[in-house]
Amino acid sequence: MEKKTIVARAKVLAEKQAAFLNATEALIQGTRAERGNISYTLYQSTENPSDFIFYEEYKDENAMSVHAASKHFKSFVETIDGMLAEEMVIESF
Amino acid sequence: MEKKTIVARAKVLAEKQAAFLNATEALIQGTRAERGNISYTLYQSTENPSDFIFYEEYKDENAMSVHAASKHFKSFVETIDGMLAEEMVIESF
């Protein structure tokens, strides 16, 4: 079993920050309830409040795929459509 | 040349948060001036203000070592001694 880490960075439009934060709540709750999730944390830049980063740890590759296929993740992606200043940068390690 | 990424998480004592943020300023400035640094960003958890994460990108392994040996990094480590609730978790990818 090899831990997988995802770092996902988002640049949110200034006027959409409250709506974005709101949309993350169900995503965070749903993800932390996944059996394969180790940690799932959202952070905001201390310099630019429009910059956010998700730091995510999963037990293995399969747990990461379960997350990507989950209802709460898919509905989050739909909900935030139009809230971002640019495409999210998602890195997995 | 293979980009190196560091993710460093810190849990700061509540009463030390302002001092910690203050100490990061010289570190961030110094690091961004390093030739091998690509990006260096500090984020704060949207849920727990005592939780911080540095997301750092370097051009290669050597650039990462230059950073670790730098005066601004070493003096930061000294300055924040006693400010953390637990040891920092530093991962490199």
UniProtKB/TrEMBL annotation, chains A, B:
InterPro entries: ABM_dom (IPR007138), AI-2_Isomerase_LsrG (IPR050744), Dimeric_a/b-barrel (IPR011008). This is Antibiotic biosynthesis monooxygenase. Keywords: Monooxygenase, Oxidoreductase. It comes from Coprobacter secundus subsp. similis. Transmembrane segments: none annotated. One of its GO terms (molecular function) is monooxygenase activity. The keyword Oxidoreductase applies. Residues 4-93 form the ABM domain. It comes from the Bacteria. Pfam families: ABM. PROSITE patterns: ABM.
